[in-house]
Amino acid sequence: MGTAQDAIVVDRETGLVLIPPSKHHEFALGVSVWDGAAEDAFRAFIGHEVASGGLDRIRRTPGRGETVLPVKVQLVPRPDNDYNPKAISVAAPPSHGGSDHERHFGYMYDRNLRSLGGPLRGLAYATGRPLGCHAYVELHKVDPAEYRKRKADYPQVITASRNLIYSYSGIRLLMPWWEDLQQMAVAHARTVNPGQILPFTGHWAPWQPGARQQLAACTQDHLFPITLRAENGQLIACHEELLLACLWPSGRDFFDRTMARVRELGGTATAYAEDYEGSIKVYVEDSSPLV
To answer: What is the mean pLDDT of residues 197-213?
Structure first.
């Protein structure tokens, strides 16, 4: 499965199925932390991390030179979320104690879920274990004399020593690029169930000229059924008789597996697709095992 830097592993410290960060440090995703109970849970999370040796982990990031506290967090699919059933909660790891909901302190933003949500939800479902990733808390030095005068203005602080005080604000998730996450998710899930086609796998392709507008005359559904046909080394995506897109191999294993499954089904298969920011995103419906 490779190293912790290029593969998903089970982290012994937290018990999380842990996703490695991107090699590009700038790919750090913000988290929406709401007021009230979520802020209280966030403070409890920071307090637990500091008490368990977090001060020794404070460092400067390469490139930007930011001061951060590295942490690990749990990512919890929340189908019970009324606003978005595809929401993913950010919470303290199970080792902190309490339920997933009690440890919850924020949500991934919807804009990031569009590309990362499918593999994350699929991993949590396929492994049946708590899922998580690396993250960091942003820190800012506070003048000690100023802090002692105006403590009430700094409700969220980490005190390393009398003369070394940090305020903390947001937390950012260190996630791989979506293509890398999808490939790693497929590889890791197959260690749990080697014969499964993963229904969370998505393939992106440009629309055929005019196809998006013609489809709108047939259906207004966000998620719509399509037929996939294997022809000349590519997959043809159609809605009834309307040609929507041509999907070409990208060298990624999940595409090759989809192609193999369509061929095994006689050259055609049913799938679902959605309009995704000017492209078509195809989801494989069939999750039966390969022979």
So the answer is: 79
